[in-house]
Design goal:
The protein is mostly helical. It contains 13 helices and no strands. The longest helix has 37 residues, at 148-184. The radius of gyration is 37 Å and the shape is elongated. The termini are far apart.
């Protein structure tokens, strides 16, 4: 005890024993058992408890960003897919779109291979007129003895040819004029858009008749007429995309550092508006096929003796009561062709929409 009775003696460090006190049972040197890590049957809880989550089968990880903690592990568990892979995955879920795609492939094969497997559509049977379908003539013969099956095959080929060429031409025209209006703006935009408004204000058939009266009839005249009168929707869509995209920060930064305009358009703006253009191309092919059939039916499109589905309907409508197959087979070919491209276009619209992902 110190001199001060109220203060107890506090042993110094040198007064403490060097080893454990043998009389104290709690001070015995006993090995410590390591604690078992916490586990759970719930995978979500297990992921939170384990700082290094186990690899999930089928999940792709970046080697340079290996998970080292909770946040990294949660950020790396999602599979990595490109935009095209994700779009194709959504497209495959649409059964009608897959049916339309299969139908398009079938019709394209018919148009490419079919003419080599059927007889000449211009050959006339001298003794067989308006005959019913049989083994020799699967779709029967028309009013002058020509094989309807062969004429339908050649008509599908002609319709697809016109549809693809017209869609390609009107897409090029629409993208060019729409990009010019959206990028330049001001007077250029006003002139092009007023021209579009004038064409849209005229009924389509009247406008087509006016061009045909100037150009003439036939396959070439039909292609030019449809291409010149079908670019309006594409131009308006591309213009709207350019007006929106050219305000993006990366576009303004590219213009600020002196990147040429053509490079900005091709590398930075067009890739952002190509998705709706793809949808318009798919739908435009079906629309061009239907427009060609309508104009040929009215007598201002493809002329005899060229096999045309619309022309076949026009020539056979007076025989519908006695020979309905002359009208039904070409009409069915038109319906299937147009429907197939419309289904594909609708499926592409849903698949390429990032809001649906």
């Amino acid at each position: 005890m110190n001199d001060d009775a109220g203060t107890p003696d506090v042993p110094s460090a040198r007064d403490l024993p060097d080893g454990p006190d043998p009389t104290d049972p709690m001070s015995a040197e006993t090995p410590l058992t390591p604690m078992e890590p916490m586990r759970s049957d719930d995978p979500a809880v297990e992921m939170l408890l384990d700082p290094e989550p186990s690899r999930i089968p089928g999940t792709r990880y970046r080697s340079e960003d290996a998970p080292s903690g909770l946040s990294d592990g949660l950020n790396e568990v999602l599979p990595v897919r490109s935009f095209r892979q994700d779009a194709w995955r959504r497209f495959r879920r649409n059964k009608l779109a897959l049916f339309g795609l299969a139908l398009v492939v079938f019709l394209v094969l018919v148009g490419l291979i079919g003419p080599f497997l059927v007889q000449d559509p211009l050959v006339q049977e001298r003794l067989i007129f308006k005959s019913n379908p049989d083994a020799a003539h699967w779709f029967g013969t028309d009013q002058v003895g020509r094989d309807v099956f062969a004429r339908v095959i050649y008509g599908i080929r002609l319709s697809l040819f016109i549809g693809f060429i017209v869609t390609m031409l009107e897409t090029v025209i629409g993208i060019s004029l729409g990009a010019l209006a959206g990028w330049r703006g001001r007077m250029t935009d006003a002139v092009i858009m007023r021209l579009v408004d004038i064409f849209l204000g005229i009924p389509y058939l009247v406008l087509a008749f006016a061009f045909i009266a100037v150009i003439g009839k036939g396959v070439s005249a039909m292609i030019i007429t449809l291409a010149v009168t079908s670019w309006l929707t594409t131009a308006r869509l591309v213009r709207a995309g350019f007006l929106q995209a050219k305000r993006f920060e990366y576009v303004e930064a590219a213009r600020a550092v002196g990147v040429p305009s053509y490079r900005i358009v091709w590398r930075h703006i067009l890739p952002n508006i190509v998705q709706p253009i793809i949808v318009l191309v798919a739908i435009g092919i079906g629309s061009a096929v239907l427009a060609e059939a309508a104009l040929s039916y009215l007598g201002v499109g493809v002329q005899e003796p060229t096999p045309s589905l619309g022309l076949m309907i026009a020539r056979s409508q007076s025989f519908f009561s006695t020979a309905p197959h002359l009208l039904l087979f070409p009409a069915l070919a038109i319906v299937l062709t147009v429907l197939s491209f419309l289904l594909v276009g609708d499926g592409l619209r849903d698949a390429l929409d990032v809001k649906e992902s």
